[in-house]
């Protein structure tokens, strides 16, 4: 199990590379490209230290296959420049970095390639013929009619293949995937720690296969490879109205696996899925992502994936061919269990029922210890995010998702149950039928999500703000389950595009989401219509809506944000055709440059409070933004003519916006907070209108008692725009507010994640509309970007990429007396800490090697500013720039700095 915490970089005496990656992953197995990108981070305690040159060498079996030679670039990445790499091969790459004084430091890492060529696949798809075997029959004690839907789903199957190895094993790898979900084992031991593999992609076009190292699990003699196969996204329930929302991609789960064993004498053995595999049902009777799972321990198969097992009563698997046309190598971290949460309380209810509280809303499942059950005792586990006023489990917001697991005991003294192929969004579990007395020691929550590496940390002096940041982080974890979903609990869990693009900047401060979103963009590209429209959800299922303002603009905003954050221009090269076609789609329907036509669902500023932002204003602002980013992308990848054309289009849209929506007093049509925030954030207002628009924005907030009205589209912009234009205290008032509507209101009422709606629960009305009321939904948590970039002050300049040109501009204010943040940029760790004590402001800054920073020390007395080593003007590596905006501004090289000033 991994732990979702930020680890510190190494403590080193001089310039040192660390965190070596291939294709942005640490020592990956089975990469899908023969020319990978190799990258690293740098650490050094020396001020002004930098990488003067680097050298990368790639080796195979000790033989060098590429040498970059010494390069004097200061970049911390290089693309493999030798001959194309070969399939199914382990590589070692060695890095040398040289500092300005000529000292060289070395590091090394490994990676392995996957299967590059179709002819290298020997595996066939195998399945069970459900036409000759009935579908699963639900437990007889299910009382809810909706549960009968499960009878349309297939019971999971157990597959095995016994084989002999007559020579010692040097290396063994399994390349596997499924139409459905699978879990592998070898010789009785689980293979890997992935969950819900192969994850969710648009299986019609892209299906990821995973690579596992099983060298230590095999031996000479008899060996067994086993797999459990379930429905998953392939043929299980996805989305709402689950009476008709199964079998989106297919009706039968199928397995594909290929074991490649390299022997010490250089020979090779391949074991692939085919008709020689055998299969049967087992204790896992039913498994669905939305509905839950049923496990009957009386039907356990013993050591079914171990040598020596008698499988004579197992049937032959059906061989259905070798079509591998959609296969791609897995390119991002899988879903894993990243944290265990012991139950914090158990409350007994009438009828031998218990309510268990984990203390935290999560996406995951429960591990239940069963003691003293008789053979055949049935235990039911129902999951929910909230409790009713009478202490009963609240499930109305699940809609048609059952979120219910069943366990039937075999009568052992102590048994354990944890589902395999389902995930629930929950804080509370109702356990019915448990034998004896249930205690907190019997129940453990297991949090599951895509294991994106943690990248950031934020903490401050205010417990409410820290709770908000915790809620944002848990909302991200609970909804980054293979794809960026909107909620983990109800019958939806879809990759809504607006939610993703709005939250991405916050997500990227908290975790390295580069490969996670790059993978998602692959599904966005194949979902684009021939005309250029982008669906509302990716992967594209359920909804037929295409081209919604702010939703479809994810096609431009997500790739550009990834490029700015991580500096890999390949994301723009891949996304450019999609970006261009999207902007052209809108432009063709709206030649007057006001986006009124082809707006599809047009949700506006979704879930705004008590107002209605003009939808033409919102749409046209996003049209301008997408044109701007398309021009910028074209410029980065060297398409100057296109950059000029789309840049001019952006200017013309901006002029049309002002003519159509802005009056002589700088008032934007609709006069709403989001109506001002969008043009201010997107640079659509001429200078003479900017301050007037800010004045109207502030007036609206004051008129409402300093209370927000923003929905999805505006909430991320509110605090940054207020702070940018000098209204820092107003931004803090919103941050600290605990009245309705506010972030603090949900926290005051027990929230441990971000709610979907401001009115998810209110004192006056109780629970909000059950048709759409998730209590784990990250969109309104996009204020997290400001906590890192504004409060802690870790940002980059407008022209910077990958945080090479840092802007350290903390914003002290509100109730805070100190705040600190850290963020792993592609170059290395940047961190800040500020504190106000007895009239003195202290700012500690660490800038990674290869980066520079413009530091703003907030003070009304620039002469009072000192650095720990003496006056600012006398410091090596520190250049005084100006005194402005009640701050002294200086530019610093890499290294550690400590500034003090009069507060």
Strand content: 25-35%
Please indicate the count of domains. Answer: 5
The tally of strands reads: 48
Structural class: alpha+beta
Main sheet: strands, sense, barrel: 10 strands, mixed
Kindly provide the name of the CATH class of the largest domain: Mainly Alpha
Instruction: Give the oligomeric state.
Output: single chain
Nutshell version of this structure?
The protein has 903 residues and is an alpha+beta fold. The protein folds into five domains: 16-113, Immunoglobulin-like, CATH 2.60.40; 121-332, Sandwich (Jelly Rolls), CATH 2.60.120.260; 336-450, Galactose-binding domain-like (Jelly Rolls, Sandwich), CATH 2.60.120.260; 456-791, Glycosyltransferase (Alpha/alpha barrel), CATH 1.50.10.10; 805-902, Sandwich (Maltose phosphorylase, domain 3), CATH 2.60.420.10. The protein has 14 helices and 48 strands.
């Amino acid at each position: 199990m991994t732990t979702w915490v930020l680890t510190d970089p190494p403590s080193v005496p001089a310039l040192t590379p660390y965190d070596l990656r291939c294709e942005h992953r640490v020592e990956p197995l089975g990469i899908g490209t023969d020319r990978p990108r190799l990258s690293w981070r740098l650490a050094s305690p020396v001020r002004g230290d930098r990488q003067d040159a680097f050298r990368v060498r790639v080796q195979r079996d000790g033989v060098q296959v590429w040498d970059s030679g010494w390069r004097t670039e200061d970049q911390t990445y290089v693309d493999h420049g030798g001959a194309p790499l070969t399939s199914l091969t382990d590589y070692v790459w060695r890095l040398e970095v040289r500092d300005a004084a000529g000292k060289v430091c070395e590091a090394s890492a490994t990676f392995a390639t996957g299967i590059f060529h179709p002819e290298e696949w020997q595996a066939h798809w195998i399945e069970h013929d459900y036409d000759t075997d009935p579908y699963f029959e639900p437990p007889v004690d299910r009382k809810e009619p909706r549960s009968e839907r499960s009878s349309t789903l297939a019971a999971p199957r157990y597959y095995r293949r016994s084989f002999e190895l007559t020579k010692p094993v040097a290396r063994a790898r399994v390349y596997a995937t499924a139409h459905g979900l699978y879990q592998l084992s070898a010789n009785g031991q689980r293979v890997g720690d992935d969950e819900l593999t192969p994850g969710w992609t648009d299986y019609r076009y892209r299906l990821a296969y995973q690579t596992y190292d099983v060298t230590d699990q095999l031996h000479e003699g008899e060996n067994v490879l086993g797999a459990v196969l379930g429905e998953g996204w392939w043929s299980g329930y996805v989305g709402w109205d689950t009476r008709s929302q199964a079998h989106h991609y297919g009706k039968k789960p199928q397995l594909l696996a290929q074991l490649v064993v390299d022997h010490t004498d250089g020979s090779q053995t391949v074991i692939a899925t085919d008709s020689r595999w055998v299969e049967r049902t087992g204790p896992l009777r039913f498994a669905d992502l939305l509905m839950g799972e049923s496990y009957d321990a009386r039907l356990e198969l013993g050591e079914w994936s171990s040598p020596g097992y008698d499988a004579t009563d197992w049937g032959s698997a059906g061989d259905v061919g070798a079509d591998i046309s959609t296969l791609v190598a897995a390119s991002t971290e899988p879903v894993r269990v990243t944290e265990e949460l012991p139950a914090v309380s158990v409350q007994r209810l009438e009828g031998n029922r218990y309510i268990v509280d984990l203390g935290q809303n999560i996406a995951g499942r429960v591990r239940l210890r069963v003691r003293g059950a008789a053979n055949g005792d049935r235990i039911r586990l129902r999951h929910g995010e909230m409790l009713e006023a009478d202490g009963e489990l609240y499930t109305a917001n699940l809609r048609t998702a059952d979120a219910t697991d069943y366990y039937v005991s075999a009568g052992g003294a102590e048994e354990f149950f944890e589902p395999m192929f389902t995930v629930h969004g929950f804080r509370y579990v109702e356990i019915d039928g448990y034998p004896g007395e249930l205690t907190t020691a019997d129940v453990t929550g297991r949090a599951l999500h895509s294991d994106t590496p943690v990248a950031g940390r934020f903490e401050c002096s205010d417990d409410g703000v820290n709770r908000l940041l915790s809620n944002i982080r848990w909302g991200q974890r609970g909804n980054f389950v293979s794809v960026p979903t909107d909620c983990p609990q109800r019958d939806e869990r879809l990759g809504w595009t607006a939610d993703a693009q709005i939250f991405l900047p916050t997500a990227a401060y908290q975790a390295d989401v580069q490969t996670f979103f790059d993978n998602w963009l692959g599904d966005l590209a194949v979902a684009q219509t021939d005309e250029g429209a982008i669906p509302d959800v990716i992967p594209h299922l359920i909804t037929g809506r295409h081209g919604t303002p702010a939703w479809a603009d994810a096609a431009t905003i997500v790739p550009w944000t990834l490029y700015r954050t991580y500096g890999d221009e390949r994301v723009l090269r891949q996304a450019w055709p999609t970006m261009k076609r999207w902007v052209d789609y809108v432009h063709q329907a709206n030649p007057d440059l006001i986006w009124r036509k082809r707006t599809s669902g047009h949700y506006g500023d979704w879930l705004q409070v008590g107002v209605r932002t003009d939808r033409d204003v919102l749409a046209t602002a996003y049209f301008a933004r997408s044109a701007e980013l398309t021009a910028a992308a074209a410029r980065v990848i060297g398409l100057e003519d296109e950059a000029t054309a789309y840049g001019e289009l952006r200017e013309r849209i901006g002029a049309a916006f002002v003519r159509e929506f802005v009056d002589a007093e700088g008032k934007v049509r609709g006069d709403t907070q989001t109506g001002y925030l969008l043009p201010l954030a997107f640079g659509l207002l001429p200078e003479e209108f900017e301050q007037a628009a800010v004045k109207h924005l502030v007036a609206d907030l004051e008129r409402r008692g300093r209370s927000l009205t923003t929905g999805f589209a505006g909430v991320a912009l509110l605090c940054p725009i207020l702070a940018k234009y000098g209204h820092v205290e107003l931004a803090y008032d919103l941050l600290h507010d605990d009245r309705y509507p506010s972030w603090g209101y949900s926290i005051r009422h027990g929230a441990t994640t971000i709610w979907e709606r401001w009115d998810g629960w209110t004192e006056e009305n109780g629970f909000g509309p059950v048709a759409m009321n998730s209590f784990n939904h990250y969109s309104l948590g996009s204020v997290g970007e400001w906590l890192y970039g504004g409060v802690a002050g870790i940002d980059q300049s407008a022209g910077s990429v990958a945080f090479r040109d840092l802007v350290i501009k903390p914003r002290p204010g509100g109730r805070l007396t100190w705040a600190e943040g850290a963020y792993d940029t592609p170059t290395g760790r940047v961190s800040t800490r500020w504190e106000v004590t007895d009239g003195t402001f202290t700012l500690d800054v660490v800038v990674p090697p290869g980066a520079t920073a413009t530091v703003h020390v907030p003070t009304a007395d620039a002469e009072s500013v000192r650095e720990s080593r003496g006056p600012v003007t006398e410091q090596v590596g520190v250049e005084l720039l100006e005194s402005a905006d009640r701050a002294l501004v200086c530019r610093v090289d890499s290294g550690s700095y400590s500034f003090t000033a009069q507060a």
